[in-house]
Amino acid sequence: MATTTMELAPAGAFRFAETAYSHGWVVLAPNAWDPDAPAVHRVHRLGSGRVLRLRATGAAGGAAVRADVLHRGPLSGAEEREIRSDVRRMFRLDEDLSGFHARCRRRGGRWAAVADGLGRLLRSPTVWEDAVKTICTTNIQWSGTKRMVRGLVGAFGDPVPGASDGTGSGDGALPPPEGTPDRAFPAPEALAAATPDELAERAGLGYRAPWVHALAREVAAGERDLERWRESGLSTPELARELKTVKGIGDYAAATLLMLLGRYDELAVDSVFRRFVGETYFDGAAPSETEARAVYEDWGEWKFLAYWFDLWQGTEEEL
DNA sequence: TTCCAGGGGTAGA
DNA sequence: TCTACCCATGGA
Fold first, then answer.
1. Which nt is closest to the CA of A205, judged by C1'?
2. What are the tens digits of pLDDT across the range A237-277?
3. Does at least one atom of strand C sit less than 7 Å from the CB of A290?
4. DSSP 8-state code for residue A33
5. Protein-proximal nucleotides of chain B (any atom < 7 Å from a CB)
6. Per residue in A84-112, pLDDT tens?
7. What is the DSSP string of A141-166?
8. pTM for the full model?
9. Which nucleotide is nearest to A140 (CA to C1')?
10. In sequence order, what are the beta bridge partners of A52?
């Protein structure tokens, strides 16, 4: 067993721990969060199908990312480049948030802290993983989302070599938090090969099973290229319309995916948003959706981030 | 037991 | 475009 270490520098201000623990994604399988290190652990599947164990920690005092990759057999140059690219994408190291930070600085007060390197929200290496996880956040409590994603990974993910029973503490060199599944996020082909009923029964997806299965089948068959959404030349409303052609993705899920794609000009209106805005800006009353949206209107292309850090700064919530 | 969650699809107006 | 109704599942 060998470990390859790589250090990845961001474009602009960056804070490792705050970026990793910026929203729920850090605790959704196959990711796991170790708050003491702090570190993000992940069983990671490369395009070739090879499965590795990955650990990301802060470097340069948290201003960069250190990635340790545990592997059997040599890691090719192409594989190392792929991992670098995946980690850069997960931590959004190439995203330019200077415009958002400038806005926060002008606002001052508590927003000045946001300008100091916050704003990058953790995401998955693939749009596929982000899309499935987003569907698993709809009309369910957060504990249910974690259960469904854990179920998908446990039942349909490829095991990391050396894992005995699919769960456990794994390899000693990079011990992930206890109880973390030793499996990668399932490839579209793996979910397409199952039936919708199997997705419902083995992962507990409920009525979302046919939607996730249909998306997996379309991606596996090459009928849908989700990665194209990353560099789409479409306007945000046009892209949102395309996202919503996926069954299971409506207004909320489309806005969440737009955020994951690096577009922040749409708000994800869900029960959390409505409750927070009502309590914070309407004295506990329930505003109309139009009134609630208006709270962040002047943030323009940064609406989602403004809402998120407005919400996030006031909570000590454990994910 | 009932309600509802980090909503969305569908039918019918 | 808007509204009512339905949808699995588990936590509160």
1. C8
2. 999 999 999 999 999 999 999 999 999 999 999 999 999 99
3. no
4. E
5. 4-10
6. 999 999 999 999 999 999 999 999 999 99
7. -HHHHHHHHHHHHHHHSPBPTT-SSS
8. 0.97
9. B5
10. A44
